[in-house]
Amino acid sequence: MRDFYPEDMRLRNHVFAAWRQASLQSGFSEYDACVVESLDLLKRKAGEEIVEQIYHFQDKSGRDLALRPEMTPTLARMIAARQGSLTFPLRWFTMAQCFRYERMTRGRKREHYQWNLDIIGEPTVAAEAEVIATAANAMHALGLDARHYRIHFSSRALLAELLSKLGITPEHHAATFLALDKRGKIADEELETLMRNEGIRADLIPAVFKLLEVRTIEEAHALLGERSAALAEIETFRDMLAAYGIAELAFFNIGVIRGLSYYTGIVFEAFDTDSSLRAIFGGGRYGKLLASIGGADIAGVGLGFGDVVIAELLADKGLASTDGMDPLDLIVGFMQPEQHMPAVKIAAAFRQQGKSVHLALAPEKPKTFFARSGGSGARQAIYLGPDDIENGIIRIKTLADRSQVEMPLCELLGPAPAA
User: Fold this and answer.
1) How far is CA 56 from CA 45, 65, 72, 381, in A?
2) Cα–Cα distance between 269 and 328 in angstroms, integer?
3) What is the pLDDT of residues 134-165, one digit of tens each?
4) How many Å apart are CA 390 and CA 367, to the nearest integer?
5) DSSP H/E element including 136
6) Is the pTM value of this prediction over 0.70?
7) Which strands make up the sheet holding 29-30, listed edge to edge?
8) CA 384 – CA 343 distance, rounded (Å)
């Protein structure tokens, strides 16, 4: 888990600002929730992998609680609690701190912040296209484009149709999805054992693996032998991405399955073009999540975008510099103790004008002040010398080019009170 020093916070705030700006530009409303959640809710709604990674504990009343590993179950609980008074479709976003006890690797921490976009109650793929376009806008704000990342997408509905075509009945689809999502992480022999233990016939397992060799939507169509609802949905989805102007970012990849158990339709993951990092963001359509915790049956689409991988990608591409991210308008210093109060008034006056001002809290020699000013990131500096207050003049120096202008003190503070 992480500590954030000021330089780390500047980068974090830069990422958060891109997330928030993209969310608001797309008409999403912000929400939040307590980081502690019911362990039972998380166990029922999360995938097998996440259940094993939950930080859980009992409180003093003996209740089983946990630090949330992801936000979607909490979102479902919140919506189910007020479902009768909400107007759908909902467009909500949050930037939630999440915790998972898992093996740490590059781009993976045991604590991270995740930007979540969810559209609840929209049955068409317009919702999938909207959340992806919003994420692409955030990537653009961070300086990233088609040179840096790609969005891989597939459809669990399509994969379910292909599995049914092979003779694998729907009650075995969830176990098959889970096994295929683990391919490349554990040996195929272990995956075969998992599928056989779930009742999948051994003679069908090679054909299941072969599905992952499908490279195009046309190949999937050929295997099905007919036009399907899932294929029609994918075609509409691609057309919508083209209308958003981001078709060049998106590629069909049947191997995108996602580990969480509640996904039902189109699923997607974004990766850097060098394939050197984990997924930048991912998500998809989920169904029956609200119904399973007492709400009405209504589907949703969600996207999760973590801060750890994007920070790694920005660093790799030379876009993680924090210089100028928190620009300081002015730094004010003074030479003698009796100039402290005038310096306070000067700083307060500029702050009232909306400027950001760093005020020295003790006298400094000129050399010390200007050396510090150079590293402060401030655009301008005011240093009160021994006669400045008496002469009623302040000198505002632009640090980039060392140019200087004078300002009458009364212009800033108003006329001095009569004696």
Assistant:
1) 15, 6, 17, 51
2) 38
3) 999 999 999 999 999 999 999 999 999 999 98
4) 22
5) helix 126-141
6) yes
7) 29-30, 90-99, 111-120, 300-306, 281-286, 263-272, 149-155, 250-252
8) 8
pLDDT tens per residue, range 168-222: 888 888 888 888 888 878 888 888 888 888 888 888 888 888 888 889 999 999 9
Residues sharing a CB contact under 8 Å with residue 328, sequence separation 6 or more, in sequence order? 356, 357, 358, 376, 377, 378, 379
Which CATH homologous superfamily contains domain 6-316? Bira Bifunctional Protein; Domain 2 (3.30.930.10)
Locus of tokens 């402060």 = 376
Burial of 367 (0-12, 13-18, 19+ CB in 10 A): exposed
**Residue ranges per structural domain of the chain:** 6-316, 328-413
The phi, psi pair for 196, rounded to 5°, reads -65, -40
* CATH tag for 328-413 (out of 3.40.50.800, 2.40.50.140, 3.40.50.150, 3.90.1300.10): 3.40.50.800
Amino acid at residue number 62 = G
First vs last C-alpha separation in the chain: 60
Q: Quote the CA–CA distance of 139 and 272 in Å, as a whole number.
A: 12
